[in-house]
Request: fold
Amino acid sequence: MNTATPILSAVIVNWNGREPLRVCLESLFRYEKTANMEIIVSDNASTDGSVAMLKAEFPAVRVIENGENLGFGAGNNRALAVARGEYVLMLNPDMEFIEPGLEKLIAFMAARPSAGLIGCRVENPDGTFMRQCRRGYPDPISAFYKASGLIHLFPRHPRIARYFYGGEPEDAVMPVDAVSGSFMLARREALKKAGHFCEEYFMYVEDVDLCRNIRAAGYETLYAPLMRIRHHNGRCVAKMPRRAAFYHYHMTRSHLVLYRKDGALSTLVYWPIALRYILVSLLNGNRHLSAHLREFAAIRSGKATEAMRRL
Reply:
């Protein structure tokens, strides 16, 4: 095992994503130089043979076996606690490298000391631009434009479409509020100053929170389309029954956590979010609606518990 300090630590959180993870790692080894890289997979108690596959096919990969599904942020934090690289790449298991580019991104960050965290150009499976790879802060107004569909009617409007930076070129380096958690390259020093991921989130929105904390620590968060990578979005979650309900619950929950943390969760914001959740839940037969609403109220008051986070 190479004991030299690596330049880059690549961190992947996995939960029952054996096949996408295999593709991700195969493409990483195919396109990138890994001599000065350590690769760490934080496995959230997968039951699909992911760990056995890693040990058999990728012996150079360090595997952290978590005893339960810790969620995205906490799973990352377990790996970040042992990562040694000067730079850290946080990567989803359903990403596929389609060209080399990590050296270019690291060189860009080395030449720009203010850059704390960057994202690259992420593409959909058909090669089109995945606009979620650069995002504005989801303040309540921007969230309304997105939820109401207005953002789709006016995709290039500077205010209505600001959540996706509508109208901005796809090939230009630019400061952004957030990049996608599917691909985030950060200075380890900046991550430490930002406090890593907030574990109050279970899934979704952690990337927005982390980017905000990186900026609060004195660094820039940037979209830098110096390389392309492909995102086979949701392949690890797609096999879950009631995927839509899972997404709706965790996305709602995570936004409530975000708004409470930044002080934006007033009654004016809370009730439209709660009422929308109630309506969608009734339409989809959500049997856990009462428990979820109790949890949302606890989040609003800052009294949510670890047990509630596991609902």
The radius of gyration is 19 Å. Residues 85 and 256 are 33 Å apart (CA to CA). The longest helix spans residues 243-262. The longest strand covers residues 220-231.
